[in-house]
Amino acid sequence: MSESIPCPKCKSEFTYQDQDLMICSQCFHEWDPTEDVFEGETEPKVLDSNGNELIDGDSVIIIKDLPVKGAPKPIKAGTKVKNIHLSDGDHNISCKIDGFGSMALKSEFVKKA
Length: 113
Prior knowledge:
Blueprint: E1 15-18, E2 21-24, E3 30-31, E4 46-47, E5 53-54, E6 60-62, E7 80-81, E8 85-86, E9 93-97, E10 101-105, E11 110-112
Antiparallel strand pairs: 1-2, 2-3, 4-5, 6-7, 6-11, 8-9, 9-10
């Protein structure tokens, strides 16, 4: 039995060869094993509400009032947040906001400053 190549999309080890292509039996992704399979794999880009790419250390401005659980008032639109850190998950920006402390924000509610 030949060695199987893990799927570049879902990392499953359950793959098989069909003529010149490899096929994943879990996600049905097809690829050519002779090509560089990691060519298109990079960390996902985090985009702000205007489509600008965000990177660690950027400053952003909140574009709408955001309610905060347990806080008596929302974070107001126009609040500038400095030195953001990108993270994985639904709330992909970690930051500190004056008057609120450490927060996790969604990138769709900010624009690059």
